[in-house]
Each structure stands twice: as C-alpha cells, then as structure tokens.
Amino acid sequence: MALTGLEIFKLLPKTNCKKCGMPTCLAFAMQLAQKRAKLEDCPDVSEDSKQALAAAAAPPMRKVTFGTADNQLSIGQETVLFRHEEKFYSPTVVAVTVSDKLTGQDLKNRIEAINSLQFERVGTQIGAGAIAVINDSTDPAAFASVAEMVKQSSNLALILVSDSPDAIFAAVDKTKDSVPLLAAATADTAETMAKIAKENNCPLVARAESIESLSELTEKIKSQGAEDIVLCLHAESLRDKLYNLTRMRVLSLKKVFRPLGYPTISFIADGDPSQQAAIATSLICKYSGIVVVDTVEPYAFLPMLTARMNIFSDPQKPVQVEPKVYPIGEPDENSPMMFTTNFSLTYYTVESDVEASRIPSYILVVDTEGTSVLTAYSGDKLNEKTVADAMAKHNVESLVKHRRLIIPGYVAVMSGKLEEATNWEIMVGPRECSMLPKYLKEVWK
C-alpha cells in the first residue's frame, strides 16, 4: 500500500534543513505522498529509509519491456482507470500466433503475412507488434526451431508460448538476444520458469485460474528473483475476461495491491476473424496490455489497431500534422490553393478528397493546436489573422499567381474579413470535403 504523508515523515531526518526546497520535512513528506516531489531531493535521508520509501513510491503498475532496438515494446506503468483522468501510456501490443507445427513454405507464408500487417492511418504507422510462437507440437526441438525461424524472418518482438519449461528453455537458447516474453509459468512450474527468465533477462507470464491464485503466483515468481511479470488470468467468456481485467486494474491502481501491479496478456484463439477482432477491441479498451490473436486478415486487423490508436492517444493533445503548405500531385502556379486546420483527421480527409479529384493542388495547413475547422473557429483559433499569418509565413504568394484562396464552407462567414486581411479573392468551398472533387472540377476555373 502507498504510504501516507505522516508515514513518510517518520522516515525522513526531520531536520527541516530546506535543502529539498520545502520549508519543512513534513511539507516535503506531503509532496512525496502526492507524487509531486522526488525522494532524491532530500540529501540526508538514510539508506534504510530510501529503500522503504522507494518501494512505497514505486508506480502501482510495473513497466515491462521485451524485444530489442526499434522493436522493443513496453507495457504497463499505467496510472488511471479511465483515459479522461489523465491518459494511457503503453499502447496495447497486438500479437499474432505462429504454430510450431508449421514447416517449410507454410511457415514462411505465415510469417510474411504477419510482417505485412502494417498500415498508415492519419500519417501514423500502425501494425502488429509481436509474434507469439505456440508450442502446439509439445516438442521442444520443433518449438525452438520455429522460434529461431521467426526471429530470423521478422523484426517483430517475440513471445514464446509453452507450458513446458523444457520447451521454453530450448527456445530461449535460440532467441535470448531478442529478449522474448516467456509464457507461461503456473503454480507447478513457477520456480523453473522464473529461473529461466532470470538467467536470460526475459520477462515472464504468470498464468492462473483465479485472481487470488494469480497474486500468490506472482509473489512466488518474484521470490525467485524474476521481477518483470505479465499476468494471464484464464476466463471462458468475454464477460469474465473484462470483469477480471477491470478488477485487477482497480486492485493494482486504486488499492496499490503490489502482487497484481503488473500488465496483462490475453489470448484469443476462437471465432472467425471478425469475432476475434471484436473480442480483441473490447480487451484493448479494458485493460489488456497484450492481445494475441490467430487471424492475419487485414480487414479484421485494422479495426483493432484503429481502436488502439484512438484509446491510447492523449485526450488533451489531439493528433496533429505539421503546419505548412502540402503539394498534392504536382501543382504549379495555376493550381488551386486552399486551407484547412492541422487536426490530423481533418487534414487527411481533405487530402484524400483532393487526391480523388486528380487536380494538382496546394493545401495550406493552419496551426489551430490540433482542432477541427468548426472547433477552431468557435474557439477563435481560426480567424482572418491566423490564416493571413500562415499565408505570409509559408509564402504562398510565391507558389501561385492567381491570388485566389478556397476556404472551408463551414467558415464562409469569415470570407469578407479574410479578403480584407489578405487582398486575395476568397472562394467558399463546400461544407463537406467529399464534395471537393466536384467543386474543383466545376467551380474552380
């Protein structure tokens, strides 16, 4: 449990030396309790007190990493139950299974299909983050061989899934430099699995049938020296999965129950691709750190990634594009010039429709702090001055000679003032950008 301010105060030197920047040790203790100060700000605290306070000040959910280099993944270290309270920090890892029964070309095709699950959405690359090798054969040699093949054929992070310590040991021997996630230790195999994880510096999944058993299992694993743990709680139905994940999240964050203060993993093997996508999306929302699916269908995969992107974006910082002039196609001095805001979804929607018109154009992106056209206008972040300033900053006069600017139809009311501010002819575009192709072909001349 987290220490109160008074409990922290008892562990401090009580000298009121002010070296920490606070007037008294009690004031410093209160700031520590609220996580508004750092323990290292006190130069005189004893080593014993440091250990006690460091344990109490540790995040309620441990951060766990696996994979290497550019494909290293982090899960955990969350601080809130709901995104609007602050934000979520570690996006759910979406992993795909590879059975160790696959061989030859079938195995290569499966790995290639997973590697290709990469997409671009509003200027951001999203895709599968890990490959989970499943020990369906129960043969340690086959498991190790397929794990090594996956490591050599993919840059994605690796999850090794087997109940057999022998199989895990064999596979880790071939892949330990890629820092795989090992899944999973049970009550019967905890000591052996923890030893393998510790010796190879790999995180370990703990799997149990109940929350109570899981909390006992994590303590057992931790006593063996394995600190990086991921929780896996067996549940038959989606309802039970969501209930248990939520309960564990509450216990770890609100009650600071350390045995459950770890990220989670969920396996989804049943159902067609659409059903797997629906279940995975639910678990991304509440509260799985990793979801492992069996499908490689792009039509099912993209919705999962889109949901993850939306859930794990910062609600206080909209996704933005860089404010500047974007050429669409190969525009020249006679091409249309239009503007929109730097809210990513707005820009990429406009860009897509301008491209669909097949008329080379310029899009001036105005900095409105990532807000949409109407939101920016109503908040006075989009007005004749901001547009005129953006035009001057990005020197649009050097790009076209016609001095005509197309503005969004929803802000037609600002056309008069904008014309006065810029000395350009203002053309009011359509309200819906889906009408831009028709507008550019019929109205722009």
What does this structure look like?
This protein has helices spanning 5-11, 25-33, 47-57, 104-115, 140-153, 165-175, 190-199, 211-223, 238-253, 273-285, 298-311, 344-357, 373-378, 384-393, 415-422, 436-442, and strands spanning 63-66, 73-76, 93-99, 118-121, 124-127, 130-134, 157-161, 181-185, 204-208, 229-233, 265-268, 290-293, 325-328, 337-341, 361-366, 404-407, 425-428. It is 39% helix and 18% strand. The chain is flat, with a radius of gyration of 27 Å. The mean pLDDT is 93. Strand 8 (181-185), helix 7 and strand 9 form a beta-alpha-beta unit. By secondary structure, the chain is of the alpha/beta class. The longest helix is centred in the middle third of the chain and has 16 residues, at 238-253. The protein has three domains: 5-57, 3-methyladenine DNA Glycosylase II, Chain A, domain 3 (Orthogonal Bundle); 63-311, Alpha-Beta Barrel (TIM Barrel), CATH 3.20.20.20; 325-442, Rossmann fold. The strands form five sheets. Strands 10-9-8-7-6-3-12-11 form an eight-stranded parallel beta sheet. It contains 16 helices and 17 strands.
Key traits:
445 residues; alpha/beta; 3-methyladenine DNA Glycosylase II, Chain A, domain 3; TIM Barrel; Rossmann fold; 3 domains; three-stranded mixed sheet; 39% helix
